[in-house]
Amino acid sequence: MIAVFAAFFVAGCATSGNPKDPVEGFNRAMFAFNEGLDGAIIRPVASGYEAVLPSPVRTGVSNFFGNIGDIFIGVNNLFQGKFGDAFGDFGRVVINTTVGILGLFDVASSTGIPKHDEDFGQTFGRWGAGNGAYVVLPVFGPRTTRDAVGLVLDIVADPISNIGNVATRNSLVALRIVDDRATLLPADKVIEEAALDKYSYLRDAYLQRRRSLIHDGNPPREVDPEADAEQLERPAIAAAGYEPVAAEPVATIAPAVVAQLQAESADATGNK
């Protein structure tokens, strides 16, 4: 349903002329809706959650959901052919579920087994699927078309979303959303101070981070025709006796902003 929703708007909305964000008008409207929902409900509840519960309790809750996520992180690493990482992921689940008391304590990290970050959108990217159009989904937030399709599988595979008891399922889903949001409250100030246009800032952060995740932190160089043309022109300019003006350094997106995007995009999946 989510993928169909994304495809519908990508196909049906007027394009913006921006190849990176062809349905920007719709995306900005949906971004404003999500911001309103966050400001009115999710952020205040997360702030209360942080104020009421001590840090060790919140850490235990995060570890519990992270342990569930490790199962499907391991599955995605298998699909991507990263068998060593998958073995580590499943090892984390065994250790944290037993010694860590149902995942409340992250014993595996203490023993040196790293936690990975994989989902079906990344798996499709490793298989060669392109991003498709950037789209902002209601509640779920920023996605590419490829990641929207992956999100459907993330939800289908999520054991919490498939719990038969409705009250239990909804309570756990709500707790996961609030816990995710609470851990990222410090990022709000960073974003507000750094972004002249919050929508485009978060869009670029999301796309940059997803590209990095797909390539395990070592993405190939992106082709930029304008920049390449400038590089070709510089020797000729220097030969003519002109000193080129140094370009302004490009600001690096804050790590907190990157974390913000991941939490918003994983609220309903639990794959941290």
- Indicate the proportion of strand residues: under 5%
Describe the global form.
globular
Structural class computed from helices and strand pairing: mainly alpha
Gyration radius, rounded:
21 Å
What average pLDDT do the residues reach?
A: 82
Largest sheet: 2 strands, antiparallel
Order of helices and strands: HHHHHHEEHHHHHH
Provide the fold topology:
Blueprint (H helix, E strand, L loop, with lengths): L1 H11 L11 H29 L2 H25 L3 H16 L8 H4 L9 H7 L7 E4 L3 E4 H13 L8 H18 L1 H10 L3 H17 L10 H15 L15 H11 L7
Antiparallel strand pairs: 1-2
Helix pairs in contact: 1-7, 2-8, 3-4, 6-7, 9-12, 10-12
Task: Walk me through the structure.
With 272 residues, the chain is mostly helical. It has one domain (2-218, 251-265). Helix content is 65%, strand content 3%. It is built from twelve helices and two strands. It has helices at 2-12, 24-52, 55-79, 83-98, 107-110, 120-126, 145-157, 166-183, 185-194, 198-214, 225-239, 255-265, and strands spanning 134-137, 141-144. The chain has a two-stranded antiparallel sheet. Strand 1 (134-137) and strand 2 form a beta hairpin. The longest helix has 29 residues, at 24-52. It starts with a helix and ends in a 7-residue tail after the last helix.
Gist of the model:
This protein is an all-alpha fold and 272 residues long.
Features:
272 residues; two-stranded antiparallel ribbon; 12 helices; disordered C terminus
